[in-house]
Amino acid sequence: MHVVVIGAGAFGGWTALELVRRGARVTLIEAWGPGHVRASSGGETRVIRAGYGSRAIYARMAARALERWREHDARYGRSFYKNTGALWMLGRNDPFGRATLDALRAAQVAIDDLPLPEARRRYPQINFSGIRSVLFEPEAGFLLARRACEHVANLVAEEGAEYLHASVPAPVRMTRGRLERLRLSDGRIVAGDAFVFACGPWLGTLFPDVIGRRVTPTRQDVFYFGTPAGDGRFSDDGLPVWVDLSTPAMYGIPGNANRGFKIADDTSGPVFDPTHGDRNVTAAGVRKMRAYLKRRFPALARAPLVGSEVCQYEASPDSHYIIDRHPEAANVWIVGGGSGHGFKMGPVIGEMVAKLVAGDAEPDPTFSLSRFARGRIRVSAEKWA
Q1: pLDDT for 289-341, tens place per residue?
Q2: Which of 72, 78, 64, 208 is nearest to 139 (CA)?
């Protein structure tokens, strides 16, 4: 079977790797390169955690993903996964905490209900004012995103796949219930038995009728602040990944990868053009982050801004992924809707999609396109709950 995979981000890259290892002939197509700056999988780091409130399916998937990331690092002598743990800071009467405890314990994922006095003792660099409860997920941490994308794409090529640096003009058109070939932007034609489109925020333009606004790119500003010289309290040796749900969701990754202390607002931002959008952060955004640092991490109140980036989520209305067959073409698969929590799941998504393409599994209803037609989609602006 010749499978053409479009997109070399977390979903497409791992899918291509799984397919090659199953014996498929694979062509991987990428417009700007794996982990490029416009991609939802781009950037230096991404959080890996299993806490999802009551969404138990993601707790199970994250546990499997963590296993796969560890195996990958051990096999290739890499360190893409950094185990810092994750600190969840919750406000008053937050149901997320209890739901997370129940779901993770059911999935046999380690999770601790950390008393506030103990949290203050462990992390005196954090001001826990306004926090009513704290959870600690010891196996969580962060992943080196861009570097991992590059490594996976290199493995795909080394293990026998063809890699093409090209783009696919929109929209994609089917003929008599199948897709036989793609004409690329440079005029080349690629034929295949099956096609997997893992194109993140560009899925809506490639498939305007089937996807359209069901995958919406939103602008997400990310900031890196410099930590005091020689001060390990804010590095990945002294602080875990953290998520603050006592306010509109904020999260951060301790100083790592020589980039500084990463902080971002997890609330979905305005609709964004992933191809042509301006990727400079705003002065208002910087002020907002400084105000937050002053309150929650007082020692960083005057920290210099040492870097920034504008990423995007590619969000579905209910924050669930889309992993399904195209309704008009049995040999076309659409994989996306990462909704800001997809990167860590790359190895698991790759396994799932490879089985689907090979005919060894059926799509999970949770990720089906048919859920949109049923009219029971609960629109969600957040992905943590």
Answers
A1: 999 999 999 999 999 999 999 999 999 999 999 999 999 999 999 999 999 99
A2: 64
Tokens linked to 52: 């999802």
Q: Where are the domains of the chain?
A: 1-49+142-215+316-385
Q: Which of 235, 218, 230 is nearest to 273 (CA)?
A: 218
H, E, C per residue of 27-67: EEEECCCCCCCCCCCCCCEEEECCCCCCCHHHHHHHHHHHH
CATH code of the region 1-49+142-215+316-385: 3.50.50.60
Nearest to 263 by CA among 254, 272, 271: 254
- Tell me the C-alpha distance between 311 and 226, whole Å: 20
DSSP 305: E
- For 244-297, the three-class secondary structure string (H helix, E strand, C coil) is ECCCCCEEEEEEECCCEEEEEECCCCCECCCCCCCCCCCHHHHHHHHHHHHHHC
Which residues are CB-neighbours of 203 under 8 A, at least 6 positions away? 197, 211, 215, 314, 322, 334, 336, 337
Whether the predicted pLDDT of 381 surpasses 50: no
- Quote the CA–CA distance of 71 and 67 in Å, as a whole number: 6
- Give CA 32 to chain center in angstroms: 18
Q: What percent of the chain has pLDDT over 90?
A: 88
Q: Dihedral sign for Cα 224, 229, 230, 232, please.
A: negative
For the entire predicted model, the pTM comes to 0.95
- Dmax (CA) of the chain: 65
**Is 383's pLDDT higher than 80?**
no
Tokens of 85: 């743990």
Kindly report, residue by residue over 64-100, the tens digit of the pLDDT. 999 999 999 999 999 999 999 999 999 986 788 889 9
Q: What's at 117, amino acid-wise?
A: P
| 86, 49 contact by CB (below 8 A) | yes
Cα separation, 302 vs 225, in Å, equals 9
